[in-house]
Structure formats: C-alpha cells, structure tokens
C-alpha cells in the first residue's frame, strides 16, 4: 500500500473500481455518439453526411480495392483476384448502422486508449510506493505504444491481406463476392484489436523476467523453439489456411521478440549494477 495513505476497506476498492469503469464507459459512449452525429466538415453546408460513414467508405475502398492497396496488391495478383469486385450487402435494416458502430468502437478504443490507461493508473496509484509509480507509468506508456502500433498494423497491413485470402477462397468455391457489411466490420474490429493485444506480449515477457521466471539466457537459447511455437499457434488461429496471415503476423513478432531480448538483457544488467 501507499506510504502516506492507510489501507482502505475492500468495499471502497470495489466502489472505486466501479467508478473507474463508469467514467471509462462514459468516455467511450460519448465518443461513439459524437462520431455517429458529427458531420463531414468539408461537405457542409451543401449536405449533411456523418463523418463516421465517410470513414466507412474510405475503409471499404482501402480494404477491398486490391489494385491500389500497397500491402495487398502483390498478394491479389499472386492469387489472381486483383480484378475481383467485392460487394458489401446489408441483410437487415440496420446492418450498416451496426457496421458503423463497430468501426466507431475501434476508433474509440484506439483514440481513447491513453485516457483509459490514465483512469486505470488513477485507480492503482494509491496502492503504489513512489518508486513503483515511476515503474508503472513507464510500463503503461510502453504498453500504449505497443497496443496502438499493433492496432494500426492490424488495420493497415494484416486485414487487407486477410480479405485478399478470403476473396481468393470464395472464388475457388465458385461463390459470388457478396459479403455481409456487418461481418466485414466485425472482422476488422476483432482482427485489429487482436493484433494490438498480440503486440503487447513483450510486457508479459518482461513481467516474467522481473518475477525471476524467465532470463535473457533462456530467451536466447530457445528463440528458435519459441518462434516455431508462435507460427504453429498462428497457423491454428488465423482465418485462412495459407501461410500468408501467419507470415504477416509472425514477422513483427520476430522483431518484437528480439527487441524483448534486448530489454531483458538491459534489465538484468541494471540489476547487477545495483
């Protein structure tokens, strides 16, 4: 607990936690409402066009126009789907609205992640010593950078390639390229956020190192096995049966793994100096 403050009753901690969740929920819902009704400025006053739906059209073009996307263009050519035209359809009256909300959730979580992290820090701060506060702040900044980088990488690189593979598989089966707009944005949301969480694995390794469970020597001696295991897991969880998504996700993992090794080595050197 903190050096200055006495220990609080368990009920007070629960109430503080619920209050933190309430504030975070208010931030997210307010941001979603703003996105839903905010007009596209450069289209005013001629027409009212919600900015969120403008972003949807940009997303549709970015993800599905394979010839213009620098990340998916070569894969589309390789699979022979560079001339394919995907049509997003709505199965219900409000499917497009649901899809817009899914995109808004992705934007809200990404844009508001520093605010959410600050609220979490405010909740745990009273129970930390002074030196622990500095460490937690440093780790939270690191976590935010990794998460946001992962979300951006997932949206800009991983998902366009995943959709190329999905279109290729559909054409192999002779299916017409009509896909649900709700499923389309659900995949974007899950894929982008999952990549963001995936990028945060160095924090888990550092935590295990701090706990004395994993050392730099262990990471260095077993890096081949770890990378093989990660690619094996990716092969099981990625949506396509090819190695494309595995490679796209696996390459940044390799970079992050060796970066984590460097961080662990630096941390152990710091301990020896102390």
Features:
274 residues, mainly alpha, two-stranded parallel ribbon, 11 helices, 73% helix, TatC, transmembrane helix, cell membrane
Model description:
This protein has 274 residues and is mostly helical. The protein has a domain at 10-147 and 175-181. The chain has 11 helices and 2 strands; from the N terminus they run H-H-H-E-H-H-H-E-H-H-H-H-H. Helix 6 (130-172) runs antiparallel to helix 11.
What percent of residues are in strands? Answer: under 5%
Indicate the structural class: mainly alpha
DSSP summary, beta strand count: 2
| General shape | flat
- C-alpha termini separation: 24 Å
Q: Report the average pLDDT across residues.
A: 86
- Can you summarize the main beta sheet? 2 strands, parallel
Order of helices and strands: HHHEHHHEHHHHH
Helical amount: over 70%
Backbone CA Rg? 22 Å
Strand adjacency order, main sheet:
1-2
How many helices?
11
- Uncertain ranges: none
Family: Belongs to the TatC family.
InterPro entries: TatC
Subcellular location: Cell membrane; Membrane
Keywords: Cell membrane, Membrane, Protein transport, Translocation, Transmembrane, Transmembrane helix, Transport
Summarize this entry quickly.
The protein is an all-alpha fold. It has 11 helices and 2 strands. The protein is 73% helix and 2% strand.
Write the layout of secondary structure elements.
Elements: H1 10-37, H2 51-64, H3 73-79, E1 87-89, H4 95-111, H5 113-124, H6 130-172, E2 178-180, H7 181-198, H8 201-210, H9 216-221, H10 223-237, H11 244-273
Parallel strand pairs: 1-2
Helix pairs in contact: 1-4, 1-5, 4-5, 4-7, 5-6, 6-7, 6-11, 8-11, 10-11
